[in-house]
């Protein structure tokens, strides 16, 4: 431990790595127009870590505007010249003929021209503009105000506190923007990249139906389509009548359910179907005192009852099996789940039900049973219930 402490330098004495050092300030070339630029903030120094994307944007803007010296050196690469030409094509000519707006306002106008559609409307957020230009929100707001005062930009809100649309003015529409009339209706109604609408009087959105109503209509339509292709529905295995809400089941209505009707729109399965037999098994078993906190897999039981019906058992025999399992003491294994124990003892229950039916038939019709005595009994193969 002492050796490691000697190898590690003391806290506060080790030198910071080169990446943690602040870059050296580089002087910015002086403005040929003289004086301090409008968008200059703080001392006229910049760091060597200026983003390359911001440099390209300023370089393109400097090429588009005549009599302007570039702030950072720009290469004469072919791709840079092509990008500068594309930006000049997208930029309205009003920014080129006007020499009274600041460089920052010119850059903001170029960026808004990039966002604008065919009708000259652009509505990016100020946070998006600040992120693209690496500015603060206050700077973006000041430059938007400058463009609005000069008449090259018109901002309109669809409603108080809502999103703001920026309309870039063209030379023929310069008078509309300066007088405050805004963009003409013909220009604003042109088809653009997105929905660009003029502000309207009254509420900002028309009254429409709620989303919940349309969702319920869609659910009803899908349920009708599923019922049309449901074989169980076509065979009449499901009852269509509405079943009243039971006291033991929790309500699905949520808040305000007591004010509604107590009829439930859920469909109850037929008594002789697999789900109906599984429901009968659950009700029969849960009625017993030993079935406190019982958990039953109704879906697995329904599938198992369908297999038993396909094997030749009648629904009455299956219901007797459920009652026999629920009422017979010592038959249930407390270490396993009730529905799994019932499936595992299906062969024993089937044999007990059939023997009970034979004994009951012998008590009701003893003459028919006695007539069969004396004949050799034919050995029948035992039924295989091991699946």
Helix content: 40-55%
Number of DSSP-assigned strands: 7
Low-pLDDT residue spans = 42-78, 80-94, 174-183, 187-200, 239-257, 259-265
Radius of gyration (CA) equals 42 Å
The neighbouring-strand order within the major sheet is 3-5-4
- The pLDDT mean sits at 64
- Identify the CATH homologous superfamily of the domain at 45-188: Winged helix-like DNA-binding domain superfamily/Winged helix DNA-binding domain
Number of helices, where a helix is a run of at least 4 consecutive DSSP H or I residues? 17
Q: How large a portion of the residues is in β-strands, by DSSP E?
A: 5-15%
Question: What would the CATH topology of the domain at 45-188 be?
Answer: Arc Repressor Mutant, subunit A
Distance between the termini: 68 Å
Describe what is shown at a glance.
This protein is mainly alpha-helical and 387 residues long. It has 17 helices and seven strands. The relative contact order is 0.05.
Question: Would you mind describing this structure in some detail?
Answer:
With 387 residues, the protein is mainly alpha-helical. Among the domains are: 45-188, Arc Repressor Mutant, subunit A (Orthogonal Bundle); 274-370, no CATH class. The chain contains 17 helices and 7 strands. The strands form 3 sheets. The protein has a 3-stranded antiparallel sheet. A two-stranded antiparallel sheet has the order 1-2. Strands 6-7 form a two-stranded antiparallel sheet. The protein starts with a helix and ends in a 17-residue tail after the last helix. Residues 42-78, 80-94, 174-183, 187-200, 239-257 and 259-265 have low confidence and may be disordered.
